[in-house]
Write a structure and sequence with these properties.
The protein is mainly alpha-helical. Helices cover about 65% and strands about 0% of the residues. The termini are far apart.
């Protein structure tokens, strides 16, 4: 029965019915137990497992997300990068949903991601929109970019948001070897982004200055002069009656 359900799930995934595939996997756990589902997930191609995990709905609990192993999840996370989602919204949703689930061994999942090729790159993408805060955190141990004094450091309880702050804190304080591969790349990207923004701002200012100069040097239109119409000699207005 296990093989039949796995084949069914794979076919449903290929047909785009992710909800149906998850339902088939859930039925396996209900009939044969959680261990059977864990073993079955190991046989799923990473791309199929990813298809189920990345459709995670925060409004309901996913048995797949609850039972996926760190190694299985790490492979799925790396494969997510192949989708080319530049916003990384699904990547962040996936990682948050699994790493911070109530019974998760978060450290084991982080280590598994670090152990697989492309894992640290995936975490760089995950933190890409928070590059400034992460780089600031490296130096001052706080995410508040306006605070640069001693005593500003935050502890884990203050950043337990089940999101990027908590993961960054864990990486720096509990997985420093991984963090040393992640934050320098974010720092480089931050410098490049700030450089591009400065160039764009300068270009826009130059265009505004050129427009302003052109407006100032444009000659004003000559004043219009009203001229009184003079009758042409020898021409009689047809509206006038002849004196003859």
């Amino acid at each position: 029965m296990t093989n039949a359900l796995i084949v069914k799930a794979e076919n449903l995934i290929r047909n785009g019915d992710i909800a149906g595939a998850e339902s088939a996997l859930v039925s396996l756990a209900e009939t044969e137990g959680d261990y059977a589902l864990v073993a079955a997930l190991e046989t799923l191609p990473p791309k199929d497992l990813l298809a189920v995990i990345r459709e995670y709905d925060t409004s309901k609990e996913s048995v797949v997300n609850l039972l996926v192993t760190p190694e299985q999840f790490a492979r799925a996370v790396v494969m997510e990068r192949l989708y080319g989602d530049h916003s990384h919204v699904r990547l962040r949703g996936m990682i948050n949903a699994v790493l911070f689930r109530d019974d998760a061994q978060t450290g084991e999942f982080i280590e598994a991601i670090g152990d697989v090729d492309g894992g640290c790159e995936a975490l760089i993408d995950y933190l890409s929109e928070r590059d400034e805060e992460v780089v600031h955190f490296v130096i001052y141990d706080t995410f508040n970019v306006n605070r640069t004094e001693e005593g500003d450091a935050v502890d884990k309880a203050e950043v337990s948001d089940r999101d990027w702050k908590e993961l960054t804190w864990l990486l720096k304080h509990e997985h420093p070897d991984m963090f040393e591969q992640i934050w320098p790349v974010l720092k480089k990207r931050l410098k490049e982004r700030l450089r591009r923004e400065a160039e764009l701002e300068m270009l826009e200012q130059q265009q505004l200055d050129q427009t302003d100069q052109a407006d100032r040097h444009q000659p004003s239109a000559p004043a219009s002069h009203k001229t009184s119409a003079k009758p042409t000699p020898g021409v009689v207005d047809p509206g006038e009656e002849s004196a003859l």
